[in-house]
User: What shape does this take?
Amino acid sequence: MPPRTAKQLSGDAGEALAADYLARHGVRVVERNFRVKGGEIDLICRDGVMTVFVEVRYRRGGGGSGFGGAAASITSAKQRRLILAARHWLLQHGEVPCRFDAVLIDGDRLEWLRAAFTAD
Assistant: This one.
């Protein structure tokens, strides 16, 4: 396996921050980096009976990009890839109520967007 790039390591750090934050708020991480052909989900969690598919967006600096930039980077194409991966996961683990959240990290600021988008 090739060594991880700086960007991958930064993404890993962001995902770890997000997972810790969600755990402190009662959400249990059940899987990380679920991949299928055509899509990937950063974190798959349980919030009560709800399965939560989480996209993590990490920006290292605090300068000017703001959360609008991070949230806007979850494009409709990205949402389709997340939904595709979620459908595969649900087929393997059983259909349950689910939602799509986003955790946006900009420097030392973190924002958790519950139900950031839907599969409709």
